[in-house]
Amino acid sequence: MNWLQQLGRAGLNFFERLGRGHIFLFYVLAGSPGMFIRFRLLLQQLFSIGVLSLLIVAVAGLFVGMVLGLQGYNTLVDFGSEESLGVMVALSLVQELGPVLTAILFAARAGTSLTAEIGLMKATEQLSGMEMMAVDPLQRVIAPRFWAGFISVPLLAAIFSAVGVFGGYFVGVGLLGVDEGAFWSQIQSRVDFYDDVLNGIIKSVVFGFAASWIALYEGYDAVPTSEGVSRATTRTVVHTSLVVLGLDVIMTALMFD
């Protein structure tokens, strides 16, 4: 019966952490209005989280768009539909790859940084020191980072998709000889704002909310040791990736229904 006891203990621990995570989120949202009084804190985190993640997102978007251009051309040319390369690249990026890969890259670059930073602040008792000085760490430290991540992910996803389309254009038109007019006209006529672009925006907003929440909670709930912080950082990447992919399946099914 040991395996049954271990399974039950794991289930109880999971729901306990899930409950603590929702309580943590409630207090962060409740303390958010006071954060806007110190708007400078939000701007600092937008630079640290968003602007410093821009390079890796743009480079990844360029490479993903180029790969889509190569693979898409090899598939479409067999059917004589290589003029549809532009719309294939654009829809793949806007609807799926842009929001999903941006959220995963955000977790790998900025999410781990947030988790390690909060975890080390907890390990060195900086958060406890703030509480002793009557400063709410959730309002002063956590809330600006949460909202910076929430704002940054949709903007980074838009940049990822835009750069990816130009990567597909460079490969398709510049290297493989697809007609330039057909490439852009297909995108203009087939990509709809409400059915395609808006769905990608909604996904990126949800993914940004989830990725920021997970990264900050893992740091705040980390065991205050070097090993505990390292494990929390690993959990951030793993949990964010799984949650983003699971949410993507659910939202795609709802949107296309």
Q: What's the helix and strand layout?
A:
Layout: H1 2-30, H2 32-35, H3 39-50, H4 54-76, H5 85-123, H6 126-132, H7 137-175, H8 180-190, H9 193-220, H10 226-256
Helix pairs in contact: 3-7, 4-5, 4-7, 5-7, 5-8, 5-9, 5-10, 7-9, 9-10
Q: Write the element-wise H/E pattern from the N-terminal end onward.
A: HHHHHHHHHH
Low-confidence stretches: none
Supply the number of helical segments: 10
The assigned structural class equals mainly alpha
Query: Share of helix among residues?
Result: over 70%
Assembly form of the protein: single chain
Measured between the Cα atoms of the first and last residue, the distance is: 44 Å
Total number of beta strands:
0
Q: Beta-strand percentage?
A: under 5%
Q: C-alpha Rg, in Å?
A: 21 Å
Gross morphology: elongated
Mean pLDDT: 88
Count of the separate structural domains: 1
The profile of the biggest β sheet is: none
Question: How would you explain this protein's 3D organization?
Answer:
This protein is mostly helical. It has one domain (31-256). 87% of the residues lie in helices and 0% in strands. It contains ten helices and no strands. α4 packs parallel to α7 (137-175), α5 runs antiparallel to α7 (137-175) and α7 crosses α9 (193-220). The longest helix has 39 residues, at 85-123. The model has no long low-confidence stretch (mean pLDDT 88).
Question: How do you describe this structure in short?
Answer:
By secondary structure, the protein is an all-alpha fold. Helix content is 87%, strand content 0%.
